[in-house]
């Protein structure tokens, strides 16, 4: 599983989000800001996106991981700030295993 | 996928005997339900619309295993009834650390873990329902049941907070608190002690399974979408 696979998983999750939030579409680009300053997601949107990513990682790659652990929320830069930062975070998390 | 898309899929924990089994049988009698049950022992229900998984929910891995199996078999869930529970009628000073662990693991941790995982599936359906089981022993602060009552008081707090956290996903979370029910759970309690509990209730009688089913049906009604974070005691 490489970074491109992870980006594609995030894009699939964004597709899910956009489907139920047609008035607040998120662009499928690596520099899209997701959560935090200028991010498109509110806290509920973040929960939905995280759940969708976790589900797609399990369905497509049989990887069962929890993205929102204590480490995620204690890092200086939020791992959920943008698509590319989130992809790096997921990649490192899977690499840890 | 084995369920029809218009079927209501109900997960009931602790279905090998007692209240859990009767709850499962009740919803199997009603049309258009698929009931998924689980317990540490083999299934005692035979019905084409019933699926049973044998596992110990107090183990974290078992919760994940159960949800993976449900995702593979039905990939849908409308209702979770957290029925599984163990009781221990013992003075705090006579409660062993092992028994305390067991009560907290089964009555609280398994409910929290299963609710977390099941909610991910339930939130995809409209009008999702989660129903927890508590007991009148909690508001009565019954002496001699400190650990059991504490675990159920925690379930009541969990019910009220998750009702708020999950309402954005269209899921309601409520709890029903029966009085004494004639099941294995209380078979070892002397009658005079049960009578002492009953004497403290407004309606001085045992709770029947029909009393419980009535509340479950009420919580599950489509019209009960605004009934959320509520604890209904029987008796």
Shape of chain B: globular
Helix content of chain A: 55-70%
- Strand arrangement in the largest pleated sheet of chain B: 3-2-1-4-5-6-7
The N- to C-terminal Cα distance of chain B equals: 42 Å
CATH overall fold name of chain A:
Non-ribosomal Peptide Synthetase Peptidyl Carrier Protein, Chain A
Assembly type: heterodimer
Would you mind describing this structure in some detail?
The complex is a heterodimer of chains A (97) and B (235). Chain A has 97 residues and is mostly helical. Chain A has a single domain, classed as Non-ribosomal Peptide Synthetase Peptidyl Carrier Protein, Chain A, CATH 1.10.1200.10. Chain A contains four helices and no strands. Chain A has helices spanning 3-20, 43-61, 70-74, 83-96. In chain A, helix 1 crosses helix 2 and helix 1 (3-20) packs across helix 4. The longest helix of chain A is centred in the middle third of the chain and has 19 residues, at 43-61. The mean pLDDT of chain A is 89. Chain B is an alpha/beta fold. Chain B has one domain: NAD(P)-binding Rossmann-like Domain (Rossmann fold, 3-Layer(aba) Sandwich), CATH 3.40.50. Chain B contains six helices and seven strands. Chain B has helices spanning 18-29, 60-73, 97-122, 146-167, 191-199, 209-220, and strands at 8-13, 33-39, 50-54, 79-82, 128-133, 171-177, 231-233. In chain B, strands 3-2-1-4-5-6-7 form a seven-stranded parallel sheet, sandwiched between helices. The radius of gyration of chain B is 17 Å and the shape is globular. The A-B interface holds A 44, 51, 55, 64 and B 64, 120, 123, 168.
List its salient traits.
A: 97 residues; Non-ribosomal Peptide Synthetase Peptidyl Carrier Protein, Chain A; globular; B: 235 residues; alpha/beta; Rossmann fold; 7-stranded parallel beta sheet; 6 helices; 40% helix
Summarize the structure.
Chain A is mainly alpha-helical and 97 residues long. Chain A has one domain (3-96): ACP-like (Non-ribosomal Peptide Synthetase Peptidyl Carrier Protein, Chain A, Orthogonal Bundle), CATH 1.10.1200.10. Chain A contains 4 helices and no strands.
């Amino acid at each position: 599983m490489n970074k491109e696979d992870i980006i594609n998983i995030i894009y699939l999750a964004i597709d899910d989000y956009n489907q139920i939030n047609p008035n607040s579409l998120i662009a499928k680009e690596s520099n899209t800001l997701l959560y935090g300053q200028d991010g498109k997601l509110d806290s509920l949107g973040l929960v939905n996106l995280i759940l969708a990513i976790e589900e797609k990682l399990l369905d497509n790659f049989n990887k069962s991981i929890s993205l929102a652990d204590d480490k995620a929320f204690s890092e200086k830069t939020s791992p959920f700030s943008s698509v590319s930062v989130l992809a790096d975070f997921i990649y490192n998390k899977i690499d840890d295993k | 996928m084995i369920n029809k898309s218009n079927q209501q899929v109900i997960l009931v924990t602790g279905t090998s005997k007692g209240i859990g089994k009767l709850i499962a049988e009740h919803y199997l009698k009603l049309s258009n339900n698929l009931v998924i049950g689980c317990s540490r022992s083999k299934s005692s229900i035979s019905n084409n619309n019933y699926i049973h998984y044998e596992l110990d929910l107090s183990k974290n891995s078992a919760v994940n295993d159960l949800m993976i199996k449900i995702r593979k078999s039905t990939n849908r869930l409308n209702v979770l009834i957290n029925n599984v529970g163990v009781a221990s009628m013992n003075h705090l000073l006579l409660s062993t650390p092992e028994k305390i662990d067991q009560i907290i693991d089964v009555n609280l941790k398994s409910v929290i873990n299963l609710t977390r995982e099941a909610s991910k599936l339930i939130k995809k359906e409209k009008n999702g329902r989660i129903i927890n089981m508590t007991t009148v022993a909690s508001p009565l602060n019954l002496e001699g049941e400190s650990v059991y009552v504490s675990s159920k008081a925690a379930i009541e707090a969990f019910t009220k907070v998750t009702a708020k956290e999950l309402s954005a996903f269209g899921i309601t979370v409520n709890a029903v608190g029966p009085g004494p029910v004639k099941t294995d759970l209380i078979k070892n309690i002397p009658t005079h002690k049960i009578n002492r509990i009953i004497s403290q209730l407004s309606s001085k009688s045992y709770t029947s399974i029909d009393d419980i089913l009535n509340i479950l049906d009420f919580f599950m009604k489509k019209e009960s979408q605004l009934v959320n974070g509520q604890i209904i005691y029987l008796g």
